[in-house]
Amino acid sequence: MNQTPIAVTFIVFLLLFILVGIYSATRASNTTTDYLLASRNVNPWLTGLSAMATQNSGLVFTGEVAFAYHKGISAIWLGLGWALGTYIAWWFIFKPLRQISEAASCETFCSFLAHKIEGERWISAISGLIIIVFLGSYAAAQLVAGSKALNAVFGWNYNLGAIAGAAIVLIYCFSGGIRASIWTDAVQGIIMMGSLLLLLAVGAIASGGIGELWGSLEAIDPALVNLTPPNLRFGLLPFILGWIAVGFGVVGQPHIVARGMAIDSPQRMSLARDINFIGTVLVSSCALGIGLSARVLLPELMASGDPELALPYLSLELLPVVLVGLMLAGLFAATISTADSQILSCSAALTQDIFPQLAQSYQFAKLGTVGVTAIVLGIALTASDSVFTLVLFSWSALASALGPLALVRAWGKSVSMPVAVAMMLAGIATAFTWKFGLHWSEVQGEVLPGMAAGILVFAVGRLFENEEDVNC
Could you report the per-residue pLDDT of 400-444, keeping only the tens digit for each? Predict the structure, then answer.
């Protein structure tokens, strides 16, 4: 196959992302508030599209497609549960979070968690370290996803793809901060949706239509057309609730919460929420259909390939070369739209929360972005786990550690420093135990037990503390 048209199309889209990011810098002011929150002046369309692109990331193009390839139609619960849980979180949490963070002049997620708590320095530092460790790993997984796609199409070394992704993210984030991230995310989100819809339609036609596809899946393995996954230890309902909890875990994701903090008005949060929900359902549905089509059209990946590369391989099999470039751009857009947001959130945690004495330094905030990008790239170059595993556990760890405290703060509940720290540590310890000790992650994700542990610690703490003894 002639790779030149693929490369040209791919490069054109990458240049588009960079130009949008650089242009956004013309609207920026040289303040930390603008660099971290775009002066809280982002319209809801950009907020919703950006949140959708950031949340769905390389997980959709690689991990979710591979999940559907392995599990069949029952993978639908992943996408629907995640979308519903996210919608509930936006409905109940994001508006008060936006209101409180502005009233308290909180510019980072950590400062929101720690605001007006005696000993807030400890909460900011501990939550900041948690963000850097797990959100940094999450961002690295995005670079891994992008490098996998470039390797599949061009045969490039994995390291080259990760370096290219990190360089592109650094260029526009360094110049325009979160405004550049949000603007480019919105463009990337549109390209993600368009490219997925294209491949879904072509894959369904190549499979003979919906009826023929269903019959082919059933012939391969009847379990592939069963809505209930096999061998569920706790049954179907807890399995579905687990994925809804995963989606609700968005309350612990600083790179997405920052979009809610940056919207121009709390009263317009509902529009951003609806845009995010519709986009998430769309891309998840497309990923499901593409994964099912790939199981029929590329059965060899099950035994001797990598199902996380089903999408680029299917593109090469079915699409004209120019459209393969579009698909590759869509996949790469998904990865860097998340990586840029996560790198900026890690940078904010480092420069504003762990080193607050330099928090008002605009130059230090930008240098922090460079340092965090280098760390994330180092993780990506040494990572050996699958994108799906890296992303899902990083998301779960952040939700378990920071989600319960974010709920308490958004609901205006008082909490002391020892209880807040205990909530974070209990959540993350439960997530680790659930996955690596009990090995129950396959049938029930870590988010539900992890967040439940944090809420339980808060409830027990309230029994031993008088309301007037706790700063609010």
Answer: 999 999 999 998 888 999 999 999 999 999 999 998 888 887 777
Amino acid found at 18: I
For the record, the structure tokens of 185 come out as 């995310």
pLDDT band at 24 (very low <50, low <70, confident <90, very high): confident
Nearest to 275 by CA among 49, 56, 43, 81: 49
Output the pLDDT for position 158: 73
> What distance in Å separates the CA atoms of residue 266 and residue 182, rounded to the nearest whole number?
17
Task: Show the CA angle centred on residue 85, arms to residues 461 and 98, nearest 5°.
Answer: 70
Evaluate whether 287 touches 79 at the Cβ level (below 8 Å). yes
- pLDDT of 271: 97
- Which of 45, 44, 40 has the alpha carbon at shortest distance from 29? 40
The percent of residues in the chain predicted with pLDDT above 70, rounded, is: 95
What are the structure tokens assigned to 434, written together? 């659930």
- Count of H-run helices and E-run strands, the chain: 21, 0
Q: How far out from the chain centre does Cα 31 lie?
A: 26
Question: How far are the Cα atoms of 120, 144, 178, 308, 381 from residue 164, in angstroms, in the given order?
Answer: 38, 11, 20, 20, 12
Residue 43: count other Cβ atoms within 10 Å of its Cβ: 15
- CA separation (Å) from 73 to 64, 223, 233? 12, 9, 19
d(CA 287, CA 61): 7
279 to 50, 51, 154, 276: CA distances (angstroms) = 10, 10, 29, 5
Helices (H), 72-119: 76-89, 95-103, 109-114
Q: Residue 350's closest CA among 420, 286, 254, 437?
A: 254
